[in-house]
């Protein structure tokens, strides 16, 4: 049993493809029409619902490694004018000794070999990245970069910051994620649709300033909603546990929400949440939350806000797996600091004092006393539930039964008609 995952633009070919696959292999094919999260990720949840033993993923992909099922990616072959692309590269990099790393969208990976044959004889310091599906075997070699499903070896003594980046593909989330992660490298791109090359003018400093503003919002937050944006990427469950522990030690309340693809209407149903953190793949984690009721941050930004041991170094991380234990960018949580010895901090947004130290994790989330007693149920729930805590602070809490307080009366005849003109109301004559 095999699951075939198609993006929306390729669903028209799903019937013919599945029929040919069944005739050729004898396996039973299931078409995944609409994915739970982004179409670039493998939807293992939907595949497990039909008992699939493998997944064939068609179209653009983020190449995030999966947790359980074996995956075969079929990227497709979008048309690329290799000659025009090479010409645009020469115009952007007239110096033949330029150090350049060539990246591409997965739908143009089939033409990178031909482009490499044209440019490598002229540019001795050019590097072409290779696609990497799944977890690579063994640790990375010195100078080897493994990010976003791409793999390349940097030979310069100064590292990657001595290189420029050349991206083959249209403008989108993948390019934005590349530019924020490798923000010390100048970027150029070639759009195969328009057949034009250009130097990217994205103001990385302004984009990073916007993200750092969201870090300040996360520091001020008292209640954090953890949005599950993927369940198929390896390490997502470990990150959810890590975020819960981080927020608990930072003195913030949190609860986990699985709402599928986030939207302003969905998240507006949780007004008690001060900020959301989205656990998704590297391409979908950078969500523009300008239209949302509350800001949405990435796991790395939440770590900057809550982990005192992690400092801003200028490098931005979009892959949440870099934060897990054993990763190159993992930072251990420091020891707890007594409240009397903690150094207070002032919010740059509200101007109020706030605590920035970590406390010891509580031994239990349940109320310490189990003695039988009459107590306010809403107040008891507020001790362990952020939603109940928000409800406790409101003056109107919904309909109340008020048992024994309402006088008993017989049923009487009510009004008849519609609200604009009941039958017992007089009508004014014109």
UniProtKB/TrEMBL annotation:
Pathway: Protein modification; peptidyl-diphthamide biosynthesis. GO terms for biological process: protein histidyl modification to diphthamide. GO terms for molecular function: 2-(3-amino-3-carboxypropyl)histidine synthase activity; iron-sulfur cluster binding; metal ion binding. The chain crosses the membrane at residues 221-240. The keyword Metal-binding applies. It comes from the Eukaryota. Keywords: Iron, Iron-sulfur, Membrane, Metal-binding, Transmembrane, Transmembrane helix. Its cofactor is [4Fe-4S] cluster. Required for the first step of diphthamide biosynthesis, a post-translational modification of histidine which occurs in elongation factor 2. DPH1 and DPH2 transfer a 3-amino-3-carboxypropyl (ACP) group from S-adenosyl-L-methionine (SAM) to a histidine residue, the reaction is assisted by a reduction system comprising DPH3 and a NADH-dependent reductase. Facilitates the reduction of the catalytic iron-sulfur cluster found in the DPH1 subunit. NCBIfam families: diphth2_R, DPH2. Belongs to the DPH1/DPH2 family. DPH2 subfamily. This is 2-(3-amino-3-carboxypropyl)histidine synthase subunit 2. It comes from Notiomystis cincta.
